[in-house]
Amino acid sequence: MRAMVKKSEPVLSQIARRVQELRSGRGLSQDQFARLVGCHRSQVSQVERGVKNLSVDTIDRFAKALGVDAVSLLQTGPVVARDPRKALSLRERVSRNVLALRSARGVAQDALSESAGLSRNYVSSLEVQKKNVALSHLEMLALALGVPLSELLASPESDAAVGHH
């Protein structure tokens, strides 16, 4: 049984709660965790308070430092361990998933961008991994594609991956 995203909790709050839970569960202070992530303690504090919009690269770094798959930061229940053998960065996964979902639905970039309220150039840059996408924009894309946000972050080898249902 797959863990579910809490529907009533905003995504930033969900990630904030999960990062704090996993960090403290590992006995790490914010300072210690910040050193693992490669950022300042104030950034860890902002993330844990849910006041900082995150990029996919930041989510990836936090998940990596916690030893979990990025999808685990959006879910309740057991974490999905990070598999170091999987070479794809979160940016690559998001890029592939957005492109695959858009293509599977026969939706052009301009139609997706309009539906999501983003520029076509933004969607194009995302699909070729040139864009470090903000979480708020990923939410808009997930809504426009009619999928849960976790599906955009899913590993292509996972059950939630595009085309592998």
TrEMBL record:
Q: Which UniProt keywords apply?
A: DNA-binding, Transcription, Transcription regulation
The family database entries (SUPFAM superfamilies) matched by this protein are listed as:
lambda repressor-like DNA-binding domains
Q: In the UniProt record, does the keyword Transcription regulation occur?
A: yes
* Organism domain of life: Bacteria
Give the Pfam families listed for this entry: HTH_3 (PF01381), HTH_31 (PF13560)
Q: Which residues form the HTH cro/C1-type domain?
A: 19-73, 98-152
Against PANTHER family, the record matches this protein to: HTH-TYPE TRANSCRIPTIONAL REGULATOR, HTH-TYPE TRANSCRIPTIONAL REGULATOR SUTR
Name the record gives this protein: Transcriptional regulator with XRE-family HTH domain
Q: What is the native source organism of this protein? A: Caballeronia udeis
